[in-house]
Structures
1.
Amino acid sequence: MDKIEHIGIAVKDLEASNVLFEKLLGTPHYKIEAVASEGVRTSFFQSGPNKIELLEALNEESPIAKFLEKKGEGVHHIAFSVTDIKAEIKRLQSEGFVVLNEEPKRGADNKWVAFLHPKSSNGVLVELCQEIED
Ligand code: ZN
């Protein structure tokens, strides 16, 4: 793992939360992107060297809809950037972590992503992400 790439926050209303986080961080969001395969709409903020991702559910089957129902709004996941996501998945599996998708999938903000089940990491949903280079 190289560094924390971003922190993901589940929100009910992306527009309202964009306004709130623009006030909080003192900077506007720099992109909004829907990831239909994940049932989410996201927006991104850059705060100094750090990134915040807000996630809104696109439909009721969305993992974000389920998260909001169970836990309400708040921190949803921590994402770490990695340079070789497949090697990192293998390493983590060999250490006993439960990887939710062994095959990296295309996530928001031009990244290959994979998630670890929170039950194997003290309740923290961990996302691995690797920049897609086309
Ligand atoms: Zn994320």
2.
Amino acid sequence: MLRKTFYIFLLAVLLPLCGCVESKIYKIGVSQCSQDDWRNKMNDEINREIMFHEDAVVEIRSADDSSEKQIRDIRYFVDNGFDILIVSPNEAAALTPIIKEVYESGMPVVIFDRNINGDTYTARIGANDVALGGSAAHYALHLLDKGAKAIEIFGLRGSTPAEDRHEGFVKEFEAHGGTVLASVAADWRQEDAELVVDSLLKIYDDVDLIYAHNDRMAIGASEVARRLGRDEIKIIGIDAAPEIGIRAVADSVIDATFLYPTEGNRVIRTALAILKNRPYERETLLPLSSPVDLSNADILLLMNETLKEETGKMQILKNRIDDYWAQHSSQTSLFYASVAIIILLFGVGFLLLRAYWQRTRHQEELLAQNHLLQEERDKQKLLNEQL
Ligand code: FRU
């Protein structure tokens, strides 16, 4: 009985030491369709948000604009025991089947930015790209005279923001007397946009505006227009990521850009709400903001610098806290180890003492028996002599 209690106590001391009692850490997999200024901004937000959640880790993978690679990335998250998938699908049609499969297998899926066909997801966070295209058209019409002619540099065919930005722009622009001369895809890339714009400007000599579905393509368009001496053409883009889009506006490379919200923090918070069975919005449509042009580009750049500085400080603080906790937990382990060793020593000492006591008692009994036997023998001896 005593020995049993001793073992139970020992187990209770040793268990925390071997770290067997651990709380759940959620594994969040983020599948980005590409890697660029806009996505870097979003990834920074994701990493910043995750700092506040000790019970979650995140891994971000980029598919580098390849739907095949994105399918492999998604499979990687599924095969490696991730708890939730966050995905921005490169092309709706190509990614819908795998996302549907993952969702139907029971793994929660959050879609952000680009969409799939149908609604086989747990939650979606995105912007209203049709409205964004409409705002771009409004701004363009306000910059130009009636009867303006535009060419549109389309993102990637089959990716939902591009389709929607096109729809919103053309509808609004043409409804107010503008004409879209051509709409050609450049797959979201600056180099492709340069080739497209070069050919288009050689065909059309009366272009007033180039509307590009993102800032990188708008910058490419601007470079070609300047090279061809078509400085009068107004150029607008979308995204307003600070390092590229807003900088291009501040440097007068392009005339305006529209903020395409990233909201990496909101995406992580939604994912955690799903994982912890807390309430969340199934469909979140992010609000749009006013255009970025020369009137506000500088102040936005300044604000971004401040944000970067503050983030740096936060990162330093977080590292310090992590160091502190690492130190604290190694000290706690050391403490438990010392307690366990002391208890073990006591235990061993006790067992040795008990063995010693038992031996002494045994010896005393033997001596007593021996004594009795001797007495017996003496008595017999005496009897024999008498006889
Ligand atoms: C970044 C990007 C942005 C664009 C968005 C649309 O990868 O190409 O430039 O606004 O994707 O999904």
